[in-house]
Amino acid sequence: MEATTEVGKLYVEVDQSVCQGHALCHRALPEIFLSHPQTGLSYTEDTPVPEGLEDKVIAAALNCPERAIRYWAD
Ligand code: SF4
């Protein structure tokens, strides 16, 4: 019998009610964490994190002083 483990894609989002907009995440990973031109808050696209950037996304989440970044795999 063959055992396989499928790793799901990673998704990430910023809680707009918690984000303070100091842009640590945006400076670290601007292709994932976009900065809203009016509010200055960070946000993400509703798409999976591109392969190879997962560790950087998780690091950005851990480094967010407000704990505003949530990530999950589906
Ligand atoms: S580091 Fe956290 S609080 Fe700061 S802009 Fe990014 S998501 Fe918002």
From TrEMBL:
SUPFAM superfamilies reported in the protein's UniProt record: 4Fe-4S ferredoxins (SSF54862)
Signal sequence range: none
InterPro entries: Fe-S_cluster_ET
Pfam families recorded: Fer4_13
GO molecular function: 3 iron, 4 sulfur cluster binding; metal ion binding
Cofactor(s) named in the record: [3Fe-4S] cluster
Annotated keywords: 3Fe-4S, Electron transport, Iron, Iron-sulfur, Metal-binding, Transport
UniProt-recorded name of the protein: Ferredoxin
Organism expressing this protein natively: Mycolicibacterium elephantis DSM 44368
